[in-house]
Structures are given as C-alpha cells and as structure tokens.
Amino acid sequence: MTALQTAGERELLSSMRSLLVLGKLMTDGADEEQILRLATTAAPSIARCEVATVVAADDARDAGLPEQAGVTGGPVELADVPDAWAFPLTSHDGHLGHLVVGGATDLSAEEQFLLRALAQQAGGALANRRLHAQEQATASTLSALNDRLRGTVTALQRSMEIHTRLTAVAASGEGREGIARAVHELTGLRVAIEDRHGNLQAWAGPQRPDPYPKDTPSRRERLVARASREARPLRHGQQLLAVAHPQGDTLGVIVLHDPDERAGDQELMALEHGATILAMELARVRSLAESELRLRRDVVDELLDGAEERSTLDRAVALGYDLQRPHRVVVVEGGGVAGNGEDALFQAVRRAAREGGAGSLVVARRGEVVLLADVEPDWESLRQTVLRDLGGGRVRMGIGERCDAVPDYPRSYRQARLALRLPAQSEWDDTAIRFDDLGVYRLLVGIEDLGEVDRFVQRWLGPLLEYDGRRGSELVRTLAHHLERGGNYELTAKSLIVHRNTLKYRLQRIRQIADVDLGDPETWFNLHLATRAWSTLDVLRSLR
C-alpha cells in the first residue's frame, strides 16, 4: 500500500484480494454445492445486502427473473426478494444463471463491481466443476474415450494455469504491461491493451505496429458499445476483444491479434480472465489518481488560503513538490469553442505546463485553473498552447508576483486574479497578463485607503456616473475607451461597436455634463487616471 490510499481504497483492494482467494477455493476441488455456498455467503461480506441466492438459468422464468438481466448486472423486480439485484453467472461455456442479492436499495459502483466479479468467478468455477464431473463420468463408463479424457484433463490444467498466472500478475502489481505479457505467454498470440479511445497502453509480442492503428471516434464508440453488450469476447476482423469496465465504466480493452482464427476455448478463457484482472488494475490506478488529485488540491488550497507553513511544506514534500523554490501563482480562465467545461481547461493547462516545463502542480479551483509555476516561460506562448489544445475559444491568464516563501502564495494568487480582471474592465483582448506589468493599475491596487481613490473618481467622474445611473447610458465607458486609445476616433468607435457620429455625440455630452476640456493635457491625464481608478475599484469590490 502507498501513503496515497484512503481507508475506502484499502478496503476495496482487500475485497479484491479476498475475491482472488475465494476464486481459487471455488476452483480447487469445491463441488457445486460448495461453490454456491461460498458465493452466497461471501456476497454480504463485500456488499450491503441481507440475502443472497443463486438462480439457475433453467429456473429463471419460474423465479420471475427477466431473460436478460444485463451483462453487468442491475436491479430487478422479484416478488419474494425485496430490492433485488441480479448478476450473471457467465463462463466460456455460456450463461449458467444469476447471483441474486436482496435488501440493498442503492449499491455503490464498487459494490456492483465486486458482486459482478464474484458472480463471474462462481460461474467459471461451476462450469469447470461441471466439466470436471462430466469427464469423470465419461472416464468411468466409457473407457474408449480415454484420449478425450486426457485432453479434458489437460484443458483443466490449462485453465488452472491461466487462473494462477493471471492471479499472480494481479497480486504482484505488474500493471498493464504485466497483464499483456501474461496473456501473450498463455496464448502465444500478440496482445494489446488499449484505452477506451483506442490509444495503445501496453503491448506484448513481436511486430508491434508503429504507428499504432486507431479508428475514428464514432467507429470506436460503436465497437466498444457492441463489445460491452457481449457476454464473451467479440471477434472484430482479425482481432478478439474483451472490455474491462470497473465500476460500470469502460476504461480499457484487451485485444488478441488472431489473423489465422486459431484461438480456441483456452485462449478465450485467458482473454476473459485477463479482462477481469485489467478491470481490477484500472480501478486501482484510477483510485490512486483521484487520491493524488485530492491531495494536490488540498495542498494548493492550504497555500492560497494561508495555512500553517510547516504542515503545508510537509504535505507538498510527500507529493514530491519543492515549494521552497521561487514560484508564481498563475490563474487561467476560459473554455473551448465546444463549451467543454472546466475539466477540459484543466487538462489543457496541465498538458501545456508539462510540455513547456512550467510546473506540474495544477488544480481546478472554484471555476478556474491554478498553476504553481517554478520557471519563467513565455507566458503568452503558454496561453496560446492551452488555446490550441482546446480547439479555440477564449483563454485568459493572470500571473502573480514571485513567491519566495510559503506566506507569499496568497498575495501572488490575489495578484493573479486581479491581473485577469483589471484588463477585463478596460476590455482588453485575451492575453497573458503579469501583475508586474500592470503599471498604474498596480499602484492603484496598492493604495490602502480606497476612500481616497473613490473621492478622486467622484471629483472627475461624479456627474457622468450620476448621469449614467439615472439614464442607463454609457458615457463613462465611452470616455474610458476614448482615453485608452489616445483619442483616436476610429479605434474608439470600433472598440465600442458604434458609429463615428454616435461617438462624437457622446463625447460632446461628456464635455457638457462634466464641464471638461478634453484638449487640455492636465484634464486628459486626470480623467484617464480617474477612469482606470473607477475600473480598479469595481474589481477590488468584486473580489472581496
């Protein structure tokens, strides 16, 4: 176990190990009655259920069980079992029945996964037991079938070899590469492990394709959906596929490359069991990733909220981060053209930061993405990389001042957020903005007495603000645009999206209402400073 595993994750891993031991007990010498007893008594220990029973395939109709209870199991309505869930007992020989549990109104995804794995192990053990029993009867009554009996015994031994080999991979934590290697050794066929989208994750065997072929997204989705509906591996051209779907999600696909179609029952068994072990491995990896993400978010929250320094440093060191090097807090806001949300922005920032060497401590936080950068990259280039990853849209990036110690992080975070919002009030284009480069805005933000700033704004803009409030007009905004663009009529009209004559009329009203001469340099300077102070006050009040 690692320091990252929570109590719940340890419990899930413990249950998985127990299932592996239980599966071996079922396979090693247990008769059908013992197999069923082991399955039904184990169910309440791994899930919140009060009763558990096995309904054979021949008895399903009499028991009121639907003909198709689903490949992955699910709730069913039975007259004599309240709150019932059914999980199919499947094997390489077909459908044997269902493991039915009752008294569980809301099974968690983890419980469903464990019960589904238990049912699969029981189904496989029943099939093996029946096959073994049939072979024993044949051997005692039909001596002429000795050759067939020896072949069957060999098949059983092969089945045990498959089970033992793949169980050892799961117990030793060899990961996806170990699973692919084991299935290759057991089948003699080339093996690939892919993610849901068809990207290669592991390969075993000769002649690895380079580049690895990949279907279009729509074809891939149809293939995965069809494979998920099957109760056994699906043949697709020269391949046999089995889907690994821990906790109900399709996270991986294990593929046998079989161009000569020589795969038999033993190869299919190895593929099916490999998919089960892959599902367990993917569930473990996802659990660890989610735990690390939570821990990273906790560290960033502590830093930005000004938590106790020593504990924050210790937690960061446990995650492999050195916070005592100089950093800058970077805040990113925006989204892609498809409106794909905060997660897409988070993934795009994380990839851009990794590729640009800007840092690896990235978290999504309160509708924005926060990066702690330990280098000084080309910030605008980093922003453009994020934008390209999103496929277009809008991305704004604010960069706070350098942090030399843990207490500096809250200040740098506030500065990064200010850097985002101050230009937004002036309606600048999307860009990467350093707080260090904000000029007069930076001075205005540093003034402690905001009342004095407000009085300055009222001195120069008071009549215009009152007029805008009373009439719903935009004279102050018009003046700000005009001053920001150096009095250029064409640029100002374009930025406001108004006709040049409309702009001239507004400027004339500004001169009359405020009683100012826009041609006087001193007046120009004070009005320009006042409009920037006005936008700064709005931002500061919004961040409180």
- The pLDDT mean sits at 80
Q: Give me the secondary-structure category.
A: alpha+beta
Residue share in helices?
A: 55-70%
Largest sheet at a glance? 5 strands, antiparallel
| Number of helices in the DSSP assignment | 17
**Straight-line distance between termini:** 43 Å
What does this structure look like?
The protein is α+β, with helices and mostly antiparallel strands and 544 residues long. It folds into four domains: 7-141, 2-Layer Sandwich (Beta-Lactamase), CATH 3.30.450.40; 172-287, Beta-Lactamase (2-Layer Sandwich), CATH 3.30.450.40; 306-438, 2-Layer Sandwich (Alpha-Beta Plaits), CATH 3.30.70.270; 448-542, PucR C-terminal helix-turn-helix domain (Arc Repressor Mutant, subunit A), CATH 1.10.10.2840. Helix content is 55%, strand content 17%. It has helices at 7-27, 32-46, 109-141, 146-172, 175-187, 217-229, 265-305, 309-318, 341-356, 379-390, 409-425, 440-445, 450-471, 475-484, 489-496, 500-514, 521-542, and strands at 51-56, 74-78, 81-91, 94-102, 190-195, 200-204, 234-236, 239-244, 252-257, 327-336, 361-365, 368-373, 393-403, 432-434. The strands form three sheets. Strands 6-5-9-8-7 form a five-stranded antiparallel β-sheet. The protein has a five-stranded mixed β-sheet with strand order 11-12-10-13-14, with helices on both faces. Helix 13 packs across helix 17 (521-542). It is elongated, with a radius of gyration of 33 Å.
Give a brief rundown of this model:
By secondary structure, this protein is α+β, with helices and mostly antiparallel strands.
Write the layout of secondary structure elements.
Blueprint: H1 7-27, H2 32-46, E1 51-56, E2 74-78, E3 81-91, E4 94-102, H3 109-141, H4 146-172, H5 175-187, E5 190-195, E6 200-204, H6 217-229, E7 234-236, E8 239-244, E9 252-257, H7 265-305, H8 309-318, E10 327-336, H9 341-356, E11 361-365, E12 368-373, H10 379-390, E13 393-403, H11 409-425, E14 432-434, H12 440-445, H13 450-471, H14 475-484, H15 489-496, H16 500-514, H17 521-542
Parallel strand pairs: 13-14
Antiparallel strand pairs: 1-4, 2-3, 3-4, 5-6, 5-9, 7-8, 8-9, 10-12, 10-13, 11-12
Helix pairs in contact: 1-2, 1-3, 1-4, 2-3, 3-4, 4-5, 4-7, 5-7, 7-8, 9-10, 11-17, 13-17, 14-16, 14-17, 15-16
